[in-house]
Specification:
16% strand; alpha/beta; 315 residues; 8-stranded mixed sheet
């Protein structure tokens, strides 16, 4: 089985790290690689660095665009990709040298099933995959797959995941270019619409660098509002249907919980309290109108600390 992996790196002003990031791909023990870098209008010499590397490495192809954001850059990368599977890598992170070999071994071990997405462990304190069952998840199990990733905080990240390109192209799965936060989360949800089979293996395939984010900046707060709006849309979506109503209700319950946990994050800032109160009222009305779409049993199975967070929203 000969498998080509397209590794897509969006690049914007990362001159201090991009060299090491690219080198981590070039140093892979598995060599059938299509490496794509999409320069998002860098002004710090980043593109000059990768252009020099490109001249000596035929597996690397560089493209450039005006500054339009990471989602546009990733979508452009998908357009140019030629691999069987696509992996997304940030310009300040890296891959362990055996990452692609690990993905290859996992895919090859399931010869009777065409895997659509492979999830794996990430070297990061943000993501805890220790309790995720290492097994094959078929279409009827997609809720269990998604909810286990979410409980390990892995559903909101692209890190450590490998996506079948055929599905990306066939179903026009792209990053939402109109949002500035949680692009990864909603991309993963969109991919789940098409996923027929998924697998998780607890092997590290991604090395994550910590990023410094201002928790309650206006941009962060606007991102929370965007996510709440998009989650409501997903719950009402008619084109995301699982194999039975029970599984559908489980997944909707997971989305409702995510919505309320976003509200909890909003509550932390007194600066935007008026907006929080309006959103709380709107989410409660939305919840009551659509309560028939959720599973009470699933809601009661969530971690106690998350349930307490939801309760504090209304105190």
């Amino acid at each position: 089985m000969d498998i080509k992996f397209s590794v897509i790196i969006p690049l914007y002003n990362a001159s201090n790290t991009i060299g090491d990031t690219v080198q981590s791909v070039l140093n892979q023990t598995y060599k059938n690689i299509d490496l794509i870098i999409v320069n998002d209008g860098s002004t710090d010499g980043s593109f000059d660095i990768v252009s020099k590397i490109e001249s000596n490495n035929p597996i690397l192809r560089c493209f450039t665009q005006s500054n339009q954001g990471v989602s546009v850059a990733r979508n452009n990368g998908i357009t140019h990709a030629i691999g069987d599977f696509v992996i997304f890598l940030d310009s300040d992170d890296s891959l362990p040298s055996n990452a692609l070999q690990s993905f290859y071994d996992i895919i090859s071990s399931y010869r009777d099933v065409e895997l659509d997405v492979i999830s794996s462990a990430v070297d990061s304190d943000l993501i805890d995959t220790r309790k995720i069952s290492q097994k094959l998840y078929l279409r009827k199990d997609i809720f269990d797959y998604a909810s286990k990733l979410e409980k390990g905080d892995a559903l909101g990240y692209l890190h450590g995941k490998c996506f079948r390109r055929e599905l990306l192209v066939r179903d026009s799965i792209k990053f939402n270019e109109d949002i500035s936060m949680s692009e990864d989360f909603f991309f993963n949800l969109d991919f789940l619409k098409s996923t027929r089979s998924a697998v998780f293996k607890n092997v590290v395939t991604y090395l994550y660098n910590s990023h410094d984010n201002s928790l309650m900046s206006k941009k962060y707060y606007d991102g929370l509002l965007q996510r709440i709006h998009l989650i409501k849309g997903f719950i009402l979506s008619k084109d995301f249907k699982l194999v039975d109503s029970k599984s559908q209700k489980k997944f909707n319950t997971f989305l409702f919980m995510r919505m309320f946990l976003l509200l909890y994050d909003m509550k932390k800032s007194k600066k935007y309290n008026d907006i929080f109160i309006t959103q709380r009222r709107g989410c409660l009305v939305f919840f009551l109108k659509n309560i028939r779409f959720l599973s009470i049993k699933t809601a009661l199975s969530y971690k106690l600390k998350d349930s307490i967070k939801v309760l504090t929203i209304f105190l």
